[in-house]
Each structure stands twice: as C-alpha cells, then as structure tokens.
Amino acid sequence: MTTNKMLKFISLGQEMPEKRASELRREDFEEIYGRYAKDHAADQAGRCSQCGVPFCQVHCPLHNNIPDWLMLTAEGRLQEAYEISSATNTFPEICGRICPQDRLCEGNCVIEQSGHGSVTIGAVEKYITDTAWDNDWVEVIKPLAERDESVGIIGAGPAGLAAAAKLRAKGYQVHIYDRYDRAGGLLVYGIPNFKLDKEIVERRNQWLADSGVQFHLGVGIGEQLSFAELEAKHDAVLIATGVYKTRDLKAPGVGSKNVIQALDYLTASNRKGLGDKVEAFESGDLDAKDKNIVVIGGGDTAMDCVRTAIRQGAKSVKCLYRRDKENMPGSRRETANAEEEGVEFVWLSAPEAFVADKQDKVTGVKAISMRLGAPDATGRRSPRAIEGSEVTHDADLVVMALGFEPEDLPTLWGEKDLPVTNWGTIKVDHRTAMTARPGIFAAGDIVRGASLVVWAIRDGRDAADAMHDYIQAKAGDIAAQAAAE
C-alpha cells in the first residue's frame, strides 16, 4: 500500500499551493500562498522517493524526519504526521512559511537533483500543522511532574521560545524576559505579514502561556531589571537576545535624512499592521508611498524591505546588490516573488555616495558597477569596482539592509566580565552552550551571528537540554554534599 502512495514524482509534477496574482498581492499584506487542498497535499507528499539517505533531513538544521511525515501525509494520517513533525520542531508552521527551503531541504531533495522538481516540503509542513490547529491536535505542554527549579530566558525570539517550550516540558518554572511589548522578536517586528501572519506567532505565544511559561514583557535587562538580579532569581539563565545592531556603510552622505536602517523600516510597517500608532510612519518618514525607494543589500531582509515598499505604494523600488543574482545570499524564491511584484534589481552595483539637497534630504544614490573577481576566503567571488561606471539612482528613501551585528551586551547590562568573542557574540562552550560563568547559557544569533530562524530554534532546543543537564548535575552535587555531611 505504501509503495502505491509514494514515488509519484515519476508521473506527477511539482505543484505549489495556489499563489495569489502579483497585481493582487501588491495591494495588501496578506500571505501570498494559499493552503493545499487535502488531496493535493497528499499527492505532493507522495512524490517523495523515500530515499535511503534522506538528504532533505540531513540538510535541515533540525534534522526533521521529513520522509516519514511526507509518507504519513500521503496516506492521510495527518495527526501522526503532525506528531512526527513537532517532535523535532517547536514551530513547524512557522518554518514551513519562512524557511528558505530552496537552500535547505528542498534544495537538496534527491528528485530535485534528478530534474523532476523537489517535493514541496515547506508547503506540506505548513499544511500539516495548520490542519493540526484546525482540529485541536496541538495540545498545551503538560509536564509529568513540576520542578521547583526555575530558569530565566532573556529574549522572546525563536531561540528563547523554543528553549522555553522544551524546559517547560521537563517541568521547570520558565520565565521569559523581553524589552519589547510583544513576544516573538523578529518573527513579529522583522518579518512582514505577507510571509508570516502575526496571528500565527501570537497563537504560539498563547500556547506557551497556556502551558505555564511566564512572560515578562517590556522588561529590559540593564534597565527595569539588572542582570545580577535576574541571575539571583533563577537556577540557570539563557541569553537569547538575537542580534539587533544594524551594519552600517561608510560613504559620503550616509548620514543624510531619509537614509534609514532596514529594521527601523520593517518594525514601523509591522507595528502599523498590528494597529499601533507609529509617529515616524504617520509623518511619512518611514512610509514608502509615492516615493522612489532604493534598498541596498541582497539578503532576505532586503527582500522583505523591497516587497514592503511595493505594498506601501512606492513610486519605484530598486534593489542594489554588489554581486550578481547567482551569488546573492537571499532566497531565490523570495527574489522571484519580488521581481513578479515589480521590484527592479540592479545587480553588480555598489553605492559610493548619497546625494542630498540643501535640506540634507537624500535625493539619490551614486553607485558604481562591479565585476566579480577571484573567490575570497569564503569561496565567494570578490566584487571589484569598474572605474568610470558611476550612475545615480533617484531616491526619496534609502533603506540599508546590510545585515545585523550583536549589541555590546557587557556594557548595556553592566556586566564587564560577560565573555564575548572578537565579533561581540556571546562566547560559549559549544558542547554545553554554557558561558564561562556557571549557570549562564546562550543560544541563537547572539552566539552564532545573524542566521536563520530554523537555526535559532535548533540552538534553543539544544541549549534547553544542556540547561537541564546542568541543573540536574548541580542538584546531584548538592545532595551528595548533604549526605556526606
């Protein structure tokens, strides 16, 4: 029976869920993909070849058991598929929406390499968990026994939330502290609704709260609560702040008005969508409507910015990237969506200066054409400027999407001995996720550097296991010492 349900890639082509027409999705911030009908989900899952070495699973940071839940979906056993999917992934419906599957599981699918088009793993993953929510299969966490020990987690982003879920399942009293007014981190304030509807994140936050995780929002460490006070409250602490400091560009005129950072722009748009009053948006400073927009960068954040500008009614949207399309770091799928929606990509182009008027308001970006030279230490071909190729692009608003770096946490928190690397990330023993300070752990981007949500989930889950081991070992030492006395 199983054989008949699988290996359909020979006779059945790849088919994504229905995607809204570009002229329609330009008008709003709704998610652009629909949901599979039940039969379509089963058919697409049935295209899996069930290969002996599942490269999709190998290249998934969470090592999700993809072949098994694809087979269960093909057989119509969706509740079992959800149980397998959620066993390794705390937020499968989120990863199904925002993971760059074309660079991870789907990009390494065996039938993709054979020319048949990959299994639509992300869309099936999303379908499974959305169906689970619809049918009340997603149950709150119920520990077998409550523990007296408590853990404090700094940061309500994907790493912190994933760690919280695992620690709560082990019975710990879990407290999450975040300086923002909503839990979710970049899932809420950085990623636009057309990729991830905020109700999806809020549903998971409520699931954690209903499971007994306690949220302390609007609490900044070093502000409302000192790190020392937090450390004294808990048996172990996890630092999962992410990285929010934006990289800057050194060029003449970079300080001109209306040259802004990507996170400021996206946060304003997302807050507006959530119903908040955003003065910088209302004044027009962070609103792209009727403006010539230039976004600098080639990653997923840049794609979020250009597609947001389109939806805000920009007059024109250009994306400048110093390498070519084949060497851009962002998702090819997101780039294709942006092109469909009317974004103009200027490949092999790097900004040299920002032109401003007498009021110091930006009017253009002076850029120079590039060519790709020999590969650098990372294996990527290094861009080289072509002399005499300068051109100026009209710009009423310039968005810098050059990536993120860690904030100076030791200074912000008044903890000068908090160990950090030369890059400013928290320094940990990667076998245990613990810093040189006993009981202080760190996970996610604040350790790894700016990376993917799926890696943050993986790191948070691993850190939770390490924290459990530490607390149990410490309890054992205390018991042994008491017995000796």
From TrEMBL:
Gene3D superfamilies: Alpha-helical ferredoxin, FAD/NAD(P)-binding domain
Keyword terms: 4Fe-4S, Iron, Iron-sulfur, Metal-binding, NADP, Oxidoreductase
Domain Dihydroprymidine dehydrogenase residues, every copy: 25-136
Cofactor: [4Fe-4S] cluster
Domain of life: Bacteria
Record domain FAD/NAD(P)-binding: where: 151-460
MF-aspect GO terms: 4 iron, 4 sulfur cluster binding; metal ion binding; oxidoreductase activity
Protein name: Glutamate synthase (NADPH) small subunit
